[in-house]
Design brief:
Blueprint lengths: L7 H4 L5 H7 L8 H14 L11 H11 L4 H11 L7 H22 L13 H7 L2 H9 L5 E2 L2 E2 L4 H17 L3 H7 L1 H9 L4 H17 L12 H6 L3 H14 L13 H14 L3 H10 L4 H10 L8 H12 L5 H20 L17 H23 L4 H10 L2 H13 L21 H17 L11 H13 L6 H5 L12 H11 L6 H13 L5 H8 L3 H11 L5 H15 L3 H10 L3 H13 L1 H19 L4 H9 L1 H6 L2 H13 L11 H16 L3 H14 L5 H17 L7 H7 L3 H11 L29
Antiparallel strand pairs: 1-2
GO molecular function, one term: phosphatase binding
Protein name: Short transient receptor potential channel 4-associated protein isoform X2
Pfam family, one: DUF3689
Length: 787
């Protein structure tokens, strides 16, 4: 086979300097490690040896005998020669067919962690393929359709594109750095999207794009993808579901996984920077998707379709076969096929019906496989909907999700799919257990709960989680209590609510109360229910949940099961705070459950074990106590006298203990979205003291506590700095103050006034912090840095 034209000189005895160096000088023997070292160096620098075409075929053949490169360099040499612009690519495709199995088996072993290659070789085939320029060559071949000759664009077959994509992906799997190098080729990444127009290459392209975007430093912009609207609109439902795997990477803000852990200083600095730069790539991508006609409607249909409505058996089996050649899903397929075989064996053991033999496992798709297929699709779709719900166009997405009946659709799937019971043949991925959070069953449940949380949070559409009967119940609760009916309930479109005997919220409460103590779902369940209560406190909403035993369930988990998980405890305390706030009936129920000193001590021990986790409940009790003490009502007076919690918190020393610890556990440099609530809870205690004319007393007591702990000035200096940061953070024009008002029923103007009074520089003011910091210990003008 003739070598490529570029190598002709090398093949006729005129060795390049790079080749001479590889041979160790004229007349020397080939030094294998030297060759690979120089190839690696050339790959990094772009100079010297970079491709197989720079060697003679004789040299490569002799070298292969020693190092067992599986003939890959020689195949690449032939591939160069047969893939020029005027080639018909027939021979080129045959060579790709020869290369592909050499890499695919190795990649399969790598992914399954066996890492036992079929040949005893020092260098994996994928590594050799990449070192001799195979990756760059395949990128060039794939992008040939972007080149025009005499006004006509070159074409390559879908089959050939498939082979190139498969080889590239296998190399990415096994060889470190390949995926990152591909990610740096922005034109190539954009071009890959155009390959998804063909069903034959869709799955391979989508999987490769997903891996590339996962390591790409800068997020790709979807508005740069040619004909994005047409591309997405022409996807069938299966393609759209798989496309959501890519969208998950392109619409999520980078580094948001631990959003609660990032300091507010860092987030504020990033926000200022972002304001000067304009919308982020993720925001641009979200807007691009929402501009595609019917996009959200199709996602809602995918999320809510029943298993019986999904793709037929034949097309599903074809897709599974494609997955089998695509390693990203190979392990999932293995698990699915195990389920299929078990059900097939069960069917074969059963008697034949109507004298007809059962269909083979290949043509008869087991129900469990259909379910798992649908679960894996819904995972991706729900994630995309969830991200869109939290984006800038939240209200627009909310309207569309309501219009396309996502919530009633999910309600109909709740028992049979979303919260179905685990079967003996439940899917377990390689290297994981059935209870692992990576299980598709478990991940679907968590994603579903996250969606509910995003959907309900501070939005009037939350009442779509109920059915008509339950909405009538809310109206009846308001009527009985002689209070105005919630306007959002009156405005709810009854044609869009849940149908059936129970709404989605009630179903969630039912499974929540049955959840095992060690379940990882408890945190997400509590968060989803709490989001329904967030916003302006609604007595009817609280009573709706109280009547279903929610308060007793939470107290059982906190006190009787003595929950140890900090995350779960925090979610329970937050939920309990929203459930009980200003509700005298809730405090009466609390008293009936916590009816002895032993239970109360356990409850308080849980609260005091971490105020970061429990401070929202402390805030709720403090605010409720203040309101109850100003009411003239026999029932209220009775509860005030019998409720251990209200009696305990009414004591000034107890309030001071909470206040001291809340201020002491946070600092400007450590403030996050998770613990900034401690600062706001401390402010609530002081605002209520100010209302009673006791602010100077509380500050004086804080000063005494400082001295008794032998740290004069430490606490008040820290509090002064925290309040200065509070002003910078909350008085920013983009900050929404309604959350502070809703959580406290105290106007934001009173919050601002109280902070200003505390920060008054006049040392003669009895309500100014500086009046209680002795001069030698004064340290209030420190600059805010992240260090």
């Amino acid at each position: 086979m003739a070598v490529a034209p570029a190598a002709a000189g090398v093949g006729r005895g005129r060795r390049s300097a790079a080749t001479v160096a590889a041979w160790g000088g004229w007349g020397g023997r080939p030094r294998p490690s030297n060759v690979l070292l120089q190839l690696r160096q050339g790959q990094l620098t772009g100079r010297g040896l970079t491709r197989a075409v720079q060697f003679t075929e004789t040299f490569l053949t002799e070298r292969d005998k020693q190092s067992k490169w599986s003939g890959i360099p020689q195949l690449l040499l032939k591939l160069y020669a047969t893939s020029h612009l005027h080639s018909d690519f027939v021979e080129c495709q045959n060579i790709l067919k020869d290369i592909s199995p050499l890499l695919s088996m190795e990649a399969m072993a790598f992914v399954t962690e066996e890492r036992k290659f079929t040949q005893e070789t020092t260098y994996p085939n994928t590594y050799v393929f990449d070192l001799f320029g195979g990756v760059d060559l395949l990128v060039e071949i794939l992008m040939r359709p972007t080149i025009s000759i005499r006004g006509q664009k070159l074409k390559i077959s879908d089959e050939m594109s498939k082979d190139c994509l498969s080889i590239l992906y296998n190399t990415c799997v096994c060889t470190e750095g390949v995926t990152k190098r591909l990610a740096e080729k922005n034109d190539f990444v954009i071009f890959l999207f155009t390959l998804m127009t063909s069903k034959k290459t869709f799955l391979q392209t989508a999987t490769l794009i997903e891996d590339i975007l996962g390591v790409k430093k800068e997020m790709i912009r979807l508005d740069e993808v040619p004909n994005l609207n047409s591309l997405v609109s022409n996807f069938d439902q299966q393609q759209l579901a798989n496309f959501c795997r890519i969208l998950a990477v392109t619409i999520s803000e980078m580094d948001t996984g631990n959003d609660d852990k990032h300091t507010l200083l860092a987030k504020n600095a990033q926000q200022k920077k972002s304001l000067s730069l304009g919308p982020s790539a993720a925001e641009i991508n979200q807007a691009a998707l929402l501009s595609i006609p019917g996009f959200v409607e199709r996602l809602c249909k995918l999320a809510t379709r029943k298993v019986s409505e999904s793709t037929g058996t034949a097309s599903f089996i074809q897709e599974l076969e494609e997955w089998y050649t695509w390693l990203d899903n190979a392990l999932v397929l293995d698990a699915l096929m195990r389920v299929a075989n078990e059900e097939s064996e069960h069917n074969q053991a059963a008697p034949e019906e109507n004298g007809l033999p059962h269909m083979s496992a290949r043509t008869q798709l087991p129900q469990s496989m259909k379910i798992m297929h649908e679960i894996m699709y819904k995972l991706e779709v729900l994630y995309v909907l969830c991200v869109l719900l939290m984006g800038r166009q939240r209200n627009q997405v909310h309207r569309m999700i309501a219009e396309f009946k996502l919530i009633p659709g999910l309600n109909n799937l709740f028992d049979k799919l979303i919260w179905r019971k685990h079967s003996a043949t439940a899917l377990v991925l390689h290297g994981h257990s059935q209870n692992c959070d990576c299980s598709p069953d478990i991940t679907l449940k968590i994603q579903f709960l996250r969606l509910l949380q995003s959907f309900s949070d501070h939005h009037e559409n939350k009442y779509l989680l109920l059915n008509n009967q339950e909405l009538n119940e809310l109206s009846a609760i308001s009527l009985k209590a002689n209070i105005p009916e919630v306007e959002a309930v009156l405005n709810t479109d009854r044609s869009l609510v849940c149908d059936g005997k129970r709404g989605l919220l009630t179903r969630l409460l039912q499974v929540m109360k049955k959840e095992p103590a060690e379940s990882s779902f408890r945190f997400w369940q509590a968060r989803a229910v709490e989001s329904f209560l967030r916003g302006t406190t609604s007595y009817a909403d609280q009573m709706f949940l109280l009547k279903r035993g929610l308060l007793e369930h939470i107290l059982y988990c906190i006190v009787d099961s003595e929950c140890k998980s900090r995350d779960v405890l925090q979610s329970y305390f937050d939920l309990l705070g929203e459930l009980m706030k200003f509700n005298i009936d809730a405090f009466r129920r609390f008293s009936k459950y916590i009816n002895n000193d032993t239970k109360f001590q356990v409850f308080m021990k849980q609260i005091n074990s971490s105020l970061v986790d429990s401070n929202m409940l402390v805030r709720c009790v403090t605010l409720s106590l203040d309101r109850f003490e100003n009411q003239v009502d026999v029932k209220v007076a009775e509860v005030l006298s019998e409720c251990r919690l209200l009696t305990y918190v009414s004591q000034v020393p107890v309030q001071m203990s909470f206040l001291f610890r809340l201020i002491n556990i946070i600092h400007v440099q450590t403030l996050t979205q998770e613990n900034v609530s401690c600062l706001n809870t401390s402010l609530v205690i002081l605002m209520l003291a100010r209302r009673k004319g006791q602010l100077p007393l509380y500050l004086q007591l804080l000063q005494r506590m400082e001295h008794s702990n032998k740290y004069p000035g430490f606490l008040l200096n820290n509090f002064h700095n925290l309040l200065r940061f509070w002003q910078q953070h909350y008085l920013h024009k983009d900050k929404d103050s309604t959350c502070l008002e809703n959580s406290s029923c105290i106007s934001f103007s009173y919050w601002k006034e109280t902070v200003s009074i505390l920060l008054n520089p006049d040392r003669q003011s009895p309500s100014a912090l500086v009046s209680y910091i002795e001069e030698p210990y004064m340290d209030i003008d420190r600059e805010f840095t992240e260090e």
